[in-house]
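Repro:
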Amino acid sequence: MLRQWRTSFHRSLAARLSYRAEITTSAYKSNVTEGGSSTPTAPKDVAVIGGGFVGVSCALHAALRGHRVHLFERSGAFGTRDQASYGNAGGFASHAVTPVHSPSLPRQLPSLLNSPESPLSLAPSLHLLRMAPWLLSFVYHCQPHKVSAASAALATLLHQAEAGYKPLLDLIPSQHLDKVAHRQNILHVWGSQRSWDDAQFKRDLMRDLGVEMQQLNSVDEILEVEPHIRGDRVHKGLLYPGTFGLRNPG
């Protein structure tokens, strides 16, 4: 019965997705790094749907563990602009341990809704009534203890992100690695003292969670890092040094 289901499942996938890549372990066994998973005694057939950055990474990790992997992708082009991960700037933002919501956000909502430069816009409609429970829940989770709990969870995941991708980067010949990945500084700026003060809670959280950052207290310090930014639009900033990233996010 299980075998019939598997056969039906693979036929269904093949009917919906035009291209499939089979990833075997022979090319990867010698590349399992210290601390990685050893080859299992009973390899399984693993199907991964989607050949973008995440799908390819999952498929390679499964192959490193000795499984037989079938990677399905409808476009026939793996890891290209057709995938959801295309054009995402290619950064591993291990410093981004705080969520979107914050204790200061409920107070900022009126100005965010009224500002033409705000990223937040809500058009009057009946759909707003349906969204009301979610909006109330969002505001509820802006409480300091809720934001702190979410940040701690995010930090646990993000602090392991770079190490998690290391086995995959080890597959790349050393002479080509610099063409694929590099380290760069990330700059985050605030446009006014008020917005800087509103972010104080999150900055304290980041420091408590071990995020490495350098505070830039003047426009001159910011322009020294990024001379092409408009000095009249910035006030203070944070610099996150040595952030790991991909050279080509596509």
